[in-house]
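Workshop exercise sheet. Pairs work together: one partner reads the sequence aloud, the other fills in the structure field after running the prediction. Swap roles for the next sheet.
Pair: D.N. / O.F.
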Amino acid sequence: MTMDNHAARKAAVYEAALQLVARGVSPAAMTIQQLADTAGIGKGTMYGYFSSKEEILQGLAEYCFARENERIRVLFADCCTLAGLEERAVAYLQDIAANRMGDYKMIAQALGTPGRCESVPACADELRDIMRTLLIRLQAAGEIDPAVSLEYCCTAIFSAVVGGLIGLCFTAECGVKNQLSGNLKEMMHRMLARLWQYDDEIKMLIKS
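Structure field:
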């Protein structure tokens, strides 16, 4: 079997695991037989690719993380304004909340278990590099306050994204209608925009 076919079979198992997660099956309760049946391959064949369920879950976390990194890279490749960042970040979160929460849960679980997945730190570093490239571009264009560090900007975006995703999932599950999307955009804007953009607003507050 070629390497491409080998990778395709492993990907089919990862996709099967995500389908099970979407159906409410927890990774801890998932069985090799369930994975094999969902992927459409024999249980014995599974062991030709993985030595254990733990190895499958470790590979799944890397698979999800790497795939999200590529989505983010493509999404922001031509982004050159802060408004564009805000719009695309919120659209990305809405897409995850609606279609890919299983992926996010696997990534979050891996990040919350240091040492469990050896490749996860490399994926996290790759994500930071993608964000740094975007932020450097926006700072050079005068869209982001040059007085703030890239580390601050990354922290601001990651905080908004994680908090926003939790908020979107909560509002979706509870049927709550609010202005979360608009608030997320405003929050990112206020954390990253050049301070002079608020000079007139500050002056008005002082006068009042």
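Discussion prompt: The chain has a mean pLDDT of 83. What would you look at next?
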